[in-house]
Every structure is written in C-alpha cells, then in structure tokens.
Design brief:
The structure is a single chain. The protein is mainly alpha-helical. The chain has one domain. Helices cover 76% and strands 0% of the residues. Helix 1 packs across helix 2. It is extended. 10% of the residues are buried.
C-alpha cells in the first residue's frame, strides 16, 4: 500500500499539528497527574484535558513557530 503525501507547502501545518498533538498529550498527562493523581479514571481525565488543549496548542504552535525559527537563525551559525 502506497502512502499519499501532502504537498511541501503544507510542511508548516503538518509540523504544527504533530508538535501540538504530542506536546498537548504529554502536558495533559503531567498536569492531570500533578493535580489529581494517577488513581482510577486518570486516562479519561487526560483525554478530556487533551480535547481542550490540542486545538489551543495547535494555534499556539502556528503563531510561535515563525518566532522560534527567527530566534534559532539568530543564535545558530549556518553552514
């Protein structure tokens, strides 16, 4: 089975989607665990928090990414 790839113009959006998804899930796990512990219902509470956090994280990554790219270019030598 061959995987259909998106056009390269979507690179920033795909990056933002995966970055936001992974970070929102990890942060949801940590914050839910810190606030209410790892007892019964932990995963359900994490998923509930993730549903709220993911769209916000996606928008934030889209906004912050250009700033981070500029900061990296200012601080790191190019080859």
């Amino acid at each position: 089975m061959r995987l259909h790839k998106l056009a390269s113009r979507f690179t920033s959006l795909v990056f933002a989607f995966f970055m936001a998804g992974i970070m929102a899930f990890l942060m949801s796990m940590v914050i839910v665990g810190a606030n209410s512990g790892l007892q019964h219902g932990y995963l359900l509470r994490v998923l509930h928090a993730y549903i709220l956090a993911m769209p916000i994280a996606f928008i934030c990554v889209l906004i912050v990414r250009p700033v981070v790219v500029r900061l990296v270019h200012q601080l790191v030598e190019s080859d």
